[in-house]
Amino acid sequence: MALRQKLRRSTSEDISVYIKGYRCYSSKLDWNKLRPMILRRIEKRGNDHPVKSMIPVAEDVIINRARLFEGVSTLLGHYPIKACKFCPELYIGKEGHLIKTCHGYRRHIKNQVHHWVDGTLNDIIVPVEAFHLNKYPDIIKHDQRFDFDRIPAVLELCSQAGVDIFDQTLHSIGKDSLSSDVSTSPSDLTYLAVRTLKAWEDMREGVQKLLLVYPAKVCKFCDEVHVGPSGHKARLCGVFKYETWRGAHFWKTARVDDLVPQKIVWRRRNQDPLVLLDKGRNFYGHAPAVVELCIQAGAHAPSKYMCIMKANGSSPALH
């Protein structure tokens, strides 16, 4: 009898030690008391912002953004671009290509030849807007969507980082000695292209750093962007055809390309024909629109784009 009791005691101790390594989900926590604590933490989540070490990063983003817009605007006066009238396709050159990739305005057609018109600044630098929040408020409801201004998403990200985005000093710094004295000489245009390409890369790098600290959301089914820890409740998506009203967004974590789209375009290499043909679409390279514009102005492409540019690839005329 004594031996049996001793075995039971040792077995129960071993089981209790074994169970301690696991989390017990049947705890007796009172969630009614825990819920107000969680809500108070959510309300005070903006007290630790802005992060002081990220303020110089946000200021550099605004400066590089001003340099980018000023440089691209000047280069567009010397290097024309073409935009499709019925889809977002863009081409850097005097004449558009003949590649059949047009899908129409509402995507009712596909594999059609593009109808080219003169491109503008918004075609090469795609504008992405978001609601401007003065602080960390409650989630924006649908009936409050007109109470908040819409500003560029990059500026909203810098605003939440603690920078005064309406300070004209930051915007004017990027315009100094860039394009005011640029003439039509190739050397001046090359210098401007190099500065513009550097501003493009530095701005995207700065946005990447800011997104590590200040979260942003993008809709899974449309291009709506919201800078903040959670998306808004404005029903502006309209992705479902059976809905007679516009539906709510499906939010996911935003990346750099969601706030600063690259706008990938076809590019003509030295071994390609003067006008890109549809039969050679598997041989032609690609590049971001800003990068391609700066390359044509004399700047050197960063090495990270070489894989999609296919600079040393074969020509369709050889096959």
TrEMBL record:
<dbReference type="GO" id="GO:0003723">
    <property type="term" value="F:RNA binding"/>
</dbReference>
<feature type="domain" description="APO">
    <location>
        <begin position="218"/>
        <end position="303"/>
    </location>
</feature>
<feature type="domain" description="APO">
    <location>
        <begin position="83"/>
        <end position="167"/>
    </location>
</feature>
<protein>
    <recommendedName>
        <fullName>APO domain-containing protein</fullName>
    </recommendedName>
</protein>
<dbReference type="Pfam" id="PF05634">
    <property type="entry name" value="APO_RNA-bind"/>
</dbReference>
<dbReference type="InterPro" id="IPR023342">
    <property type="entry name" value="APO_dom"/>
</dbReference>
